[in-house]
Amino acid sequence: xxxxxxxxxxxxxxxxxxxxxxxxxxxxxxxxxxxxxxxxxxxxxxxxxxxxxxxxxxxxxxxxxxxxxxxxxxxxxxxxxxxxxxxxxxxxxxxxxxxxxxxxxxxxxxxxxxxxxxxxxxxxxxxxxxxxxxxxxxxxxxxxxxxxxxxxxxxxxxxxxxxxxxxxxxxxxxxxxxxxxxxxxxxxxxxxxxxxxxxxxxxxxxxxxxxxxxxxxxxxxxxxxxxxxx
Length: 230
Prior knowledge:
about 230 residues, alpha/beta, Ubiquitin-like (UB roll), five-stranded mixed beta sheet, 9 helices, 11 strands, about 25% strand
């Protein structure tokens, strides 16, 4: 995930996320390979980022860009529904709040998304003391509605970032497109349960795992194994 920031003292570039669950899994399995998740901090390149983190005293500079885009579009828009959505966004921006905090229906979201408003991206507005990188990463994940799931064993422990509410096939595809294409079942175990077992097989024997279909919504912090046939 790329996080663009302004007004915050953050390390530019990629940083390894301090993930207590990943660290515990790595200590438990002692794998040949470790694949932690890396966030990337980029200063004031809002277009390139998935999430924006900004201090309240810099926020207006971001919102002005969106206000100008809306004003330009309003001067040309003839569709009543589009004009209503844009005027709703303009009124919200004038309260100095990002568009991501404005409730929008599906049609309004389509209109706004096409306009490319910067603050439609998940925007973390910080006041007070600056956070450390790990705290900001967590806030960015929460704002964007993201979560981690994991694959873990003697070969590798790997952290995967996906949208909350992702189903088993989506998570399989995150690991590799072949796993989604040939998906049969996913075996799922919670982090808490895997820590009470020696390994996945032991968790299976203790009936701590659950075998699920592709539409099963994967809870955050789950460890999964994909059964597939390509």
